[in-house]
Each structure stands twice: as structure tokens, then as C-alpha cells.
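Dear colleague,

Thank you for sharing your sequence with our group. We've completed the structure prediction you requested, and as agreed, I am returning the results in plain text so they can be pasted directly into your records. Please verify that the sequence below matches your submission; if there's any discrepancy, let me know and we will rerun it promptly.
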Amino acid sequence: MNLNQIQAFLTVARTLSFTRASNELYLSQQNISVLISNLETELGFTLFDRRRHGLGLTNEGRFFNNYFSNEMQSGKRLIGEIKLDKQRRERHFRFGYSSWIDPFGQIDLAVTAFRRENPELVFTGRQDDNEVLSGMLRDNELDVAIIPSGQVLGEKTFEYFPFAREEICLSVPDDITDETLDPGCWGLTLLTVASWNWGVFEWKRIVNQEIAELGLSPREVRVLPNVLSMVTQLEAGRCAAILDKRFGIGSKSDVIRHIPIKLDATPMCSCVRHRDNESPVTKSFVSFLKEFFSDKDADVKR
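Please find the predicted C-alpha cells below.
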């Protein structure tokens, strides 16, 4: 059974004429007859009374006429709903900031500029932990997430698009006046944030590896539940933390001093999307961010 058979049957049932159905469907009467005959064979019922003075529907024909008509209407409504949903999704752009990023800094200027160029779009933004953003990307609840390069979300189904260089620093109280980095962090406790995905031992291994790669050897490392508590404690107490001076939360604090950390590879802030997300808006947003920050990165290097 196929759509051509059903369409031929419904047209003949409405017109009660193979000739008129042939004209409407631009098919020969022989093709119409074959389609109807094959449909009757598959259903196991005769659908038309072929009378001397014209066609009539059998009881089974009337039943299937009502059934197929309703199904065709339902199918059209479903197609209409799918198209409407597609149009809504194409107008609705959902993005998320990592909790490590200042949502009112340079990236927000870029997002605002993108919104001005796309006034027809409806924007929805949120800030959350990377694990939450990862789940929302996976469940198609976000189109794109903006995260620091060192915080990979760990999903092979994600694509990463670096768009601007970061400035990784050791952030310390403002009364530390040294211009050069102290690998021992001036004896300060180094604050870190543990991922939900890590067990205690795995967290210690990863943190120790990251600290070693940065050339640091702090006297003590303390774990905190989230980056906001890290910045709050950094502002209030005698401690240190590794933050991004350019985009990171706490970058505008008046009581935090940022000492640059020299890295072999340039860390980049990235847009992350699910590989199945082929939205043209997402692609346009990624391209816009890359172009927006290209000149600014050149200024930072100079």
C-alpha cells in the first residue's frame, strides 16, 4: 500500500469517475485502474461497485474512504505542525554560558551585537555548571554552550569551535605586588572546583596534573563546590585560584590581582554544539563570534 494508491482511491471515491480522477491526477485511466486494483488486492476487499450507470462505493469502500480521508487530514496536520515547529526553532536561539565565564563581559558584547543583526530571532540564555550545559546540549535543550577551552565537556558527539584567546592567570589578593609568578603561590592555598564526573582520587590526579603543567607547586590545594564560591572566597580570604582574566568570572574584581601564567599552547574560549545540530543560526553565531574577536585578539597580542 502506498500514497499513490490511496490518493487514486480517494479521488475516484470523491468523483465516482475514473475519467475525472484521471484528469485531476494527470494519470491515464489504465494507471488509475491498476492502482485501485492493487489496493483492493492488498486490502482484501472490493472498494467499488462497478455499475452500468456509474460507480458506487461498497460498504468496505465507504469505510476505507472515511478512514483514509481522516488519516490524510491527520497527516497534513502533522506535517503542518512539524513545519511550524521547524520555523519556531529556526527563530529561537538557545545558548548557555559556563559558570566560569563572566556573562556581562566581552562575550556579552558580541552576543548583543549578534542580536542586533538578527532582530527576528528570539534569544534564550542561561548560565550553569558545565555538566548541566553538557546534558542540555545532549538533550537538544541548548543550541550552543560557551565554555573555556580547558573544561572539555567530555562528549564525543560534541563539536568545539574556538573563537577567542583566553588570558590564564594565577589570581591572588591585591596586596600581592610581585610582577612575576611565584610557583609556590606565595604560600597561599590554591582553590579548585571539582567536577561531578570525577571521583575523589580521579579529581586529585587531574588537578595535580594540571597544576604541574602550569608550573605550580602550591603548599595546599582546597576543593570548592563551584566557581562562584571560589571567587567569593578569593575576594574575602588569603588564597589563590587559576582564572581567565579576559573572560572569566571575577575578572573585574577590584580586590583580585591577576599574575599571567605562560603556557605553551594558547587557551581558547570555545562554542560547543551537538554534532546533530545543523541549525543555520548556530553556524552563523559561531562565525560571528570568530569574526567579532579576530581584531580584538590582534589587539591583545600587540
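Summary note from our side: The longest strand covers residues 158-165.

Kind regards,
the structure core
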